[in-house]
Structures are given as structure tokens and as C-alpha cells.
């Protein structure tokens, strides 16, 4: 199933968190926090301004991004988990 986010929304797939820390300690799944890093899968057309013009998106499909801990809405498509969030919830693009 394909999905295209509307307006200034972005479809993101979370990247898996690393299982070990610097000291070599293995963290069990129950104690792990959800990663705040992901890959953009799809983007909308852009934000519609009050005068009707469309402001293009700053991110594109394939970008690795950082986002806030409680950003977006979790969705499940074809047994895969994604997040749909507004472009404003993105903290930065990793280069």
C-alpha cells in the first residue's frame, strides 16, 4: 500500500536503536526508548499559506532526520510501523 501525506506532513520510518552502549552493556527491549531518528519515506506537497500559495518542503524522501520524542502519530501499514508528522516537528536533517 502506498500513502502520500497531505500538505506539510511527512511519513517517517523509525531507524532501529543500537542495542549496546559505549560500555558494552546490552539494554533489554523493555527498557529501550523509541529512537528519535528516522528516514523520510514520503512527503506532502508543502504548507498552504493564507494567501493560497504553497511553501515547498525542506525535506525529501530518503533524508535521515531527527525528531522530537513525542512528535507525530504512529501508524501501521502492511505490518510496518511509521510515523506521520508535520514538517515543523522535524528538528534537523542528518548529513
TrEMBL record:
<dbReference type="GO" id="GO:0005524">
    <property type="term" value="F:ATP binding"/>
</dbReference>
<protein>
    <recommendedName>
        <fullName>Co-chaperonin GroES</fullName>
    </recommendedName>
</protein>
<dbReference type="GO" id="GO:0044183">
    <property type="term" value="F:protein folding chaperone"/>
</dbReference>
<dbReference type="InterPro" id="IPR020818">
    <property type="entry name" value="Chaperonin_GroES"/>
</dbReference>
<dbReference type="Pfam" id="PF00166">
    <property type="entry name" value="Cpn10"/>
</dbReference>
<dbReference type="GO" id="GO:0046872">
    <property type="term" value="F:metal ion binding"/>
</dbReference>
<dbReference type="InterPro" id="IPR037124">
    <property type="entry name" value="Chaperonin_GroES_sf"/>
</dbReference>
<comment type="similarity">
    <text>Belongs to the GroES chaperonin family.</text>
</comment>
<comment type="function">
    <text>Together with the chaperonin GroEL, plays an essential role in assisting protein folding. The GroEL-GroES system forms a nano-cage that allows encapsulation of the non-native substrate proteins and provides a physical environment optimized to promote and accelerate protein folding. GroES binds to the apical surface of the GroEL ring, thereby capping the opening of the GroEL channel.</text>
</comment>
<dbReference type="InterPro" id="IPR011032">
    <property type="entry name" value="GroES-like_sf"/>
</dbReference>
<dbReference type="GO" id="GO:0051082">
    <property type="term" value="F:unfolded protein binding"/>
</dbReference>
<dbReference type="InterPro" id="IPR018369">
    <property type="entry name" value="Chaprnonin_Cpn10_CS"/>
</dbReference>
<dbReference type="GO" id="GO:0051087">
    <property type="term" value="F:protein-folding chaperone binding"/>
</dbReference>
<keyword id="KW-0963">Cytoplasm</keyword>
<dbReference type="GO" id="GO:0005737">
    <property type="term" value="C:cytoplasm"/>
</dbReference>
<comment type="subunit">
    <text>Heptamer of 7 subunits arranged in a ring. Interacts with the chaperonin GroEL.</text>
</comment>
<keyword id="KW-0143">Chaperone</keyword>
